[in-house]
Amino acid sequence: MKSHSTMSRRDFMKSIGLGSAAIASMGATAPFFHDLDEMTGIGAAETFNSTTSMQKRPWWVKEVDIPTVEIDLKLRTPYAGPTPLAGTLASIYVTKEETAAILASQKNNAIEGAKNNRPGFTLRDQIGAWASLDRGQTGYVKYPPEGFRTIKVTHETLGVPKWEGSETENAFMIRTFLRQFGAGAIGYARVDDDSVGPRKPLFNTHVRLENNADYKYDSNGVFVMPEKCKYAIIMYDRSPRDPNNYRRTVNSPQAFVSNMEKCEYGHKLQNFLWGLGYQSYWFEDGTTSKFTGTPTNVWGILSGVGEYNRIHNAVSQPEGESGNFASILFTDLPLPTTKPIDFGALEFCKTCGICADVCPAGAIPTVEEYREPTWDRATGPWSASNDHKGYPNKSIECVKWYFSYAITAYAPSSRPVGVCRRCASHCVFSKDHEAWIHEVVKGVVSTTPVMNSFFTKMDMLSGYSDVISDEGRAEYWHQYLPAV
């Protein structure tokens, strides 16, 4: 068992070659704090921005006008998207024969694992995963974009006008409502913001925006959303209670619970808005929603929920890559926008590549293959178009691996890389933020890339990048999880 380091901050800075001059240069870009509580509480003077108003973030997370990844949505063509049905790979990815073979492999893998008591696939592993997917009375029903609008008390039943508040007041109201259920990072964006190009092409071909009073489905089954719902609420579910559990088993119930919680509080938010007098339309990654509708990772990056990185999902701080995938809710409730953020994540990815090294599917390019992101990326049924300078990931290989080796058949039919979450749990930005040395490292990374390669090596030497053994997976049901 590894013990915690007792090295002081000053000794650590000296050990990595940052003397007093380098520390002073960092001080020029960082605000002065008397203690850590003051550091995490900056911005209390209440100016609305994504780093202080929506979530407490360290001083080294900076707001920027445009994302650190180069994006040009003028180059984007609407994505055809997967079939709304979960449990099977969409035909745009693989043939029916390939799908049948993958599902057969999954079934055989589950049976063999249970019979042989294989760590990660024992009886209680599998039942725990499936039980975590159950949402009570709704079971495995996929929520429609418009929600169920089932709230019994509304402004109309009370005989009062609908809620009217300023954009900032509405932003805080939504933040409070979501956080009481355990929501993670929250961001706001607008459909009519053309700062990186027109955003309407971000919607998949089975979703269309029109100047209608309410939603409808056209004769081809396309979901038509009112254009007035131009305000986007981007929600990340909270990080798992222990990100390392993703490394212990791909079937961690925590992963499924966080998805189901996100589904539940998304539905609650829709009822809340409906009761106040506003429409809302909810899109998710395909696990729990009827339509994926639009890519969640892009909106997370545009709204400052996280920064682009080698994995493709928005890596956030202090949540890290262990935060799960986003949900998006479009509404006609007026809201401000939150800016993109920069804490050095993309720059760090250029020399790190730990996520690629631990990816069991080979879906993420290694540093040797692609140090820098590129515009020259092959498109295919899983990639709409080259609308950003990114890493050429192979999402379909990630999904295929998950279908073959995970327990549940509720793997997504369309998603960015990261379904099994091994890449996310090994990301250096997912490390425990309560350890001061990790915060010092992140502060240095946000200020200068000089030490990035060294920090990657330190992460490896500390054992963070090790893949959990079968013995480690077997300990899953014996670990102590603190109450939250």
From TrEMBL:
<protein>
    <submittedName>
        <fullName>1,2-dichloropropane reductive dehalogenase</fullName>
    </submittedName>
</protein>
<dbReference type="Pfam" id="PF13486">
    <property type="entry name" value="Dehalogenase"/>
</dbReference>
<dbReference type="InterPro" id="IPR028894">
    <property type="entry name" value="RDH_dom"/>
</dbReference>
<feature type="domain" description="4Fe-4S ferredoxin-type">
    <location>
        <begin position="339"/>
        <end position="369"/>
    </location>
</feature>
<dbReference type="InterPro" id="IPR006311">
    <property type="entry name" value="TAT_signal"/>
</dbReference>
<keyword id="KW-0408">Iron</keyword>
<keyword id="KW-0004">4Fe-4S</keyword>
<dbReference type="GO" id="GO:0051539">
    <property type="term" value="F:4 iron, 4 sulfur cluster binding"/>
</dbReference>
<keyword id="KW-0732">Signal</keyword>
<dbReference type="InterPro" id="IPR012832">
    <property type="entry name" value="RDH"/>
</dbReference>
<dbReference type="GO" id="GO:0005886">
    <property type="term" value="C:plasma membrane"/>
</dbReference>
<dbReference type="InterPro" id="IPR017896">
    <property type="entry name" value="4Fe4S_Fe-S-bd"/>
</dbReference>
<dbReference type="GO" id="GO:0046872">
    <property type="term" value="F:metal ion binding"/>
</dbReference>
<keyword id="KW-0411">Iron-sulfur</keyword>
<dbReference type="InterPro" id="IPR017900">
    <property type="entry name" value="4Fe4S_Fe_S_CS"/>
</dbReference>
<keyword id="KW-0472">Membrane</keyword>
<keyword id="KW-0479">Metal-binding</keyword>
<keyword id="KW-1003">Cell membrane</keyword>
